[in-house]
Design a protein that fits this description.
Structural class: alpha/beta
CATH topology of the largest domain: Rossmann fold
Largest sheet: 6 strands, parallel
Strand content: 25-35%
CATH superfamily of the largest domain: NAD(P)-binding Rossmann-like Domain
CATH architecture of the largest domain: 3-Layer(aba) Sandwich
Distance between the termini: 26 Å
Number of strands: 11
CATH class of the largest domain: Alpha Beta
């Protein structure tokens, strides 16, 4: 498979290594010095995009216009998702987006939803979410933390919003979920969902050891989407 990398930072380089190890070829690389418009899409089977929130929509639409499936790992652009979905579907394109491509995290998402449903009948437990990432991470809270909070609210209608703070736990109302972000040197990504009552504490946690899991998941997603049309997530890939 011939892959273009839209964004060639640390994640892009890790994706490149994994893609090559799985027998694929990197035929294009786009970064600040080499914008997406310079790539020859006639030679590209699929694009993998990890850039910045303000660029994601433009990159997706460019790939759709070039009839090229696109895997998007950029986060914090979901306010534009309805418009992007409409564009992809109207133009018979293919998009797979995820807040986190790690197979382990996507299993964690499923566990979070199941636990939230179980805990919906135990109002004495108050949920909260904590995420820790490396100092270079641009968005806070992480896209993964937002997904965890939104999934929790879908399964437990006692909670209707979340409140975020950095380096501390925010104060919340009864119907709000506290989401805390911390930035520490060298942390690829840690996410914890907690339920605390006056008598005990229940926690589920995912800790990434390196970027390999994120990159592998993105390449697996690229392999999966090549013959499909529509808008998908990693849950479609792993089919939990």
């Amino acid at each position: 498979m011939r892959i273009a990398l839209i964004g060639y930072g640390k994640m892009g380089k890790t994706i490149e290594d994994i893609a090559i190890s799985r027998g694929h070829t990197i035929v294009g690389k786009s970064n600040r010095e080499n914008p997406i418009s310079t790539l020859d899409f006639s030679n590209i089977d699929v694009a993998i995009e990890f850039t910045a929130p303000k660029l994601a929509k433009k990159h997706i639409e460019h790939c759709v216009d070039k009839k090229t499936p696109v895997i998007v790992g950029t986060t914090a652009w979901n306010n534009q998702l309805p418009e992007v979905k409409d564009y992809v579907l109207k133009n018979n394109g293919a998009l797979l987006h995820a807040s986190n491509f790690s197979i382990g995290v996507n299993i964690f998402f499923d566990i979070n939803k199941r636990l939230a449903k179980l805990m919906s009948n135990t109002p004495e437990y108050k949920p909260s979410i904590e995420e820790i990432h490396h100092l270079e991470k641009l968005d806070a809270p992480s896209g993964t933390a937002v997904s965890l909070a939104n999934d929790l609210m879908l399964e437990n209608n006692s909670y209707t919003s979340w409140v975020h703070s950095e380096n501390t736990t925010p104060d919340t109302l009864d119907n709000q979920i506290a989401v805390s972000s911390f930035r520490e040197d060298g942390i690829p990504g840690t996410h914890k969902v907690s339920y605390e009552s006056e008598i005990d504490l229940l926690e589920i946690k995912h800790t990434a050891k390196n970027r390999q899991g994120f990159a592998l998941g993105a390449v697996i997603a690229a392999e999966w989407i090549t013959d499909k049309k529509g808008v998908f997530t990693m849950q479609d890939v792993i089919k939990l």
